[in-house]
Write a structure and sequence with these properties.
This is DUF3861 domain-containing protein. InterPro entries: DUF3861, DUF3861_sf. This protein is of the alpha+beta class. The protein has one domain: Roll (Ubiquitin-like (UB roll)). The chain contains three helices and two strands; from the N terminus they run ββααα. α1 (38-48) crosses α2. The chain is globular and about 45 Å long. The protein starts with 5 loop residues before the first strand and ends with a helix.
């Protein structure tokens, strides 16, 4: 039986340019699968509120989960070889810190 994953739709839309120019790109929309329940992760991490900013929390959780899924799926690519073991260690430490902090 195939492993089931969650499917997400990500939309990136340019709202403002730092340069002040008004040349905008067409929004990019992609569908992405991820083993984890990202909304559940956001909810759990928000209980700890590590950034005191919901926008930063969502950016952190979404970007980290999207990035980690790409690393896991492509860990044999040469540009991920050195990152894969370090990233795994980082994720274990992050999860331990969040679990430990939520039980304090």
């Amino acid at each position: 039986m195939a492993k089931r994953t969650n499917i997400y739709r990500l939309t990136l839309e340019q709202l403002e340019l730092a340069s002040g120019k008004t040349v905008f790109q067409k929004p990019i929309e992609i569908d992405s699968d991820n083993y984890d329940d990202i909304f559940g992760i956001i909810e759990q991490v928000n209980k700890k509120n590590p950034f005191n900013n919901l926008g930063q929390l969502v950016q952190f959780a979404v970007s980290l989960k999207m990035f980690s899924e790409i690393i896991i799926k492509n860990h044999n690519y040469p540009f991920f070889e050195k990152l894969f073991p370090v990233f795994g260690s980082f994720m274990k430490g992050l999860k331990a810190a969040l679990v430990q902090d939520n039980h304090s």
